[in-house]
Amino acid sequence: MASSTKLSFTLFFAFSMFLQGTLGEVICETLPTNLCSFAIASSGKRCVLENYRNQEGKLEYTCKTSEVVVERIAGYIESDQCVNACGVDRSFVGISSDAFLAPQFTASLCSPACYQNCPNIVDLYFNLAAGEGVYLPAVCEKQKSNPRRAMLALLSSGGGAAPGPVATDSADFVADAPAPSFSDFVADAPAPAPAFF
């Protein structure tokens, strides 16, 4: 009888965590670490996975609320489908543009399965790219025709990076509009956010 009570309690706890996420009440600090990365708290701030050393010196992970605010999305946990389509990993620690250095990541991010269907992940990397002075839609356009040239543009854009963009009206970006020329990869001004939301 004690084991059935324990099982019932475990199922109740698991169901309540699932129900909390589906109802839109997302608190980063209460998320399991395997759902933390690419989640957005109900407050509109991104959740980030962080690591620390416990008292025994072992590396452990925890989910924290970052200061990065996402316009138009709150209380959202990214789907496994988008995580897979975009080539990201829920075990990413922190938020970084380092992923752009892997050509296969840029190819996954720019793929139609990700770029057209996963606005949360695209928005995150759009802003990270802009922080490096790179316009993500142009990189994705270049990725279609010449992946090596797109990677070269990313690598050469470091240094004089423009500040990250501030979310603007979604009408400022049209997905079917012609991409800027190769020389427009380095941003002189913040780029508009993708119109996914």
UniProtKB/TrEMBL annotation:
Domain of life: Eukaryota
Signal peptide feature range: 1-24
InterPro entries noted in UniProt: PAR1 (IPR009489)
Keywords attached to this entry: Signal
Pfam families: PAR1 (PF06521)
Residue ranges the record marks as coiled coil: none
PANTHER family: PAR1 PROTEIN
Name of the protein this chain belongs to: PAR1 protein
Source organism (scientific name): Olea europaea subsp. europaea
